[in-house]
Amino acid sequence: MVDYKYIGSIDQGTTSTRFILFNEKGREVYSYQIEHKQIFPQPGWVEHDPLEIWKNTQETITRVLDDNNVTAGEIAAVGITNQRETTLVWDKFTGQPLHNAIVWQDTRTADIAAELAADGGADRFREKVGLPLATYFSGTKMRWLLENSLEVAEAVREGRAVFGTVDTWLVWNLTGAQDGGAFVTDVSNASRTMLMDLKSLSWDEQMLAHFKVPAEMLPSIESSVPSEPYGYTRKGGPFKAEIPVSGILGDQQAAMFGQACFEQGTSKNTYGTGCFMLANTGTDIVASNHGLLTTVLYRIGDNDAVYALEGAIAVAGSLVQWIRDNFGLVEKSSDIEELALKVDDCGGVYFVPAFSGLFAPRWRPDARGVITGLTGYANSSHIARAVLESTAFQTREIFESMEKDAGIEITSLKVDGGMTANNLLMQFQSDLLDVPVVRPLVAETTALGAAYAAGLSVGVWGGTSELKKHWAEDRRWSPQMSGEDRSAKYRQWNKAVERSYNWVD
Fold it and tell me: Of 151, 157, 425, 440, whose CB neighbour count within 10 A is largest?
């Protein structure tokens, strides 16, 4: 054990940024969180301000250190976990963004995806990159910026523009920015761009050509747990000292790491802004025949990469925020459980939150959100219940696809993320899947996974077997619903989803 008190984790998510300090037992000690603005220039478009994200990152670090009298010398290393696919382009000489970040939920690239899919279908690149052609991934967003932003196009011609996902942006700024900042990403984030070959773990020339991305714009692809740190925080930054930046994992891969899902066949579901279920397939690249994604889970040092199957749901916790902010149904997101508990069931109401189309396993960009089954009997509590149940229904779709693709029977489901605090949702999820749902003692495993990666890199922990000993169960929900009720509810859900199709021409 390295003689330090803490391992730091920057958790940069879709709606907020957090800095958390964990101890050597993987327990959260201090944290601070700040939300950032969601920018909607047009329907279906979602952007973030990269400078606001960097400002908030610095402030969360400063608040944790200052409020708790922590010195940088007490921190062994810093890891980063981030919203994936969100695409940034900035000037490498000035550090200024050339456009707002285009967020993973954004649908402006539908025409680009359709154009590329016209020759060979949506799965034409799946064997190489593990992903279908969709608005979700970074490649289409990069091409859109190159074709539609004059500022980006000019900077590319002049050799000033660089591209990165959020992890790259943060590491670059933390380690010096235009004054020698490390320009890197890790295999888990690179595997979400549609630009990396899953087998070689390198940028693929043919994919770069399809998306018109110059290779010189791209960061180097490194291991999630590097043998040597990517770089060190600069003394003039928020840490005011040099600390190793030594772990990067995309948020869902980080949650798997934090849940200690290191064996082939282990799985978890994260309930956050979206909802993401992953199953570890070991060093095997497993192709999906049921609408799932094949992605890199992590790579430790020079070892072989570990892969996963993933099902992605675009709208989960963000639906609760939407109901809160746009309709005022609840004052706080946490109030929705109390409102939903005022009724025994959804009253026949089903909410399909296809705000940006439907992701896995349906992949229907033409779908849009619908509320079905409304009668004069329905009230706000039924709506609240339908909001929560929509996440559980979407999870069941992925759960079934996962078992078919991976050839496994999932006998229990590890869960994490903010929505797992909602006992009503967790019980309904167990009922709908007919398996136990298990929440760990540390529910925010995304940040923990990044801390684990950083700590492994610098020797805080000796290996993944040591990390597994830190995992502990907090609560378990077991199924209580009859098979007849389960089938009836799922049948109605599928009817509701079909009503969301063909809305966008």
Answer: 425
Q: Is the pLDDT of residue 123 over 90?
A: no
CB 249 within 8 A of CB 233: no
Where does the pLDDT of residue 442 fall: very low under 50, low under 70, confident under 90, or very high at 90 and above?
confident
Q: Is it the case that residue 244 has pLDDT exceeding 60?
A: yes
Residue 2 has pLDDT above 50, yes or no: no
Q: Is residue 443 over pLDDT 90? A: no
Q: How far apart are CA 91 and CA 435, in angstroms?
A: 50
**Closest residue by Cα to residue 256 from 282, 231, 227:** 282
Rounded CA separation 37/53 (Å): 9
Mean pLDDT of 380-402: 92
* 449 φψ region: left (φ > 0), alpha (ψ -120 to 50), beta (else): alpha
Task: Give 423-483 as a 3 state SS string.
Answer: HHHHHHHHHHHCCCEEEECCCCHHHHHHHHHHHHHHCCCCCHHHHHCCCCEEEEECCCCCH
Structure tokens at 352: 């399909």
Cα–Cα dist 366/502, whole Å: 5
With a CB cutoff of 8 Å and minimum separation 6, the contacts of 497 are 352, 354, 358, 362, 367
Which two three-digit tokens encode residue 131? 């992903």
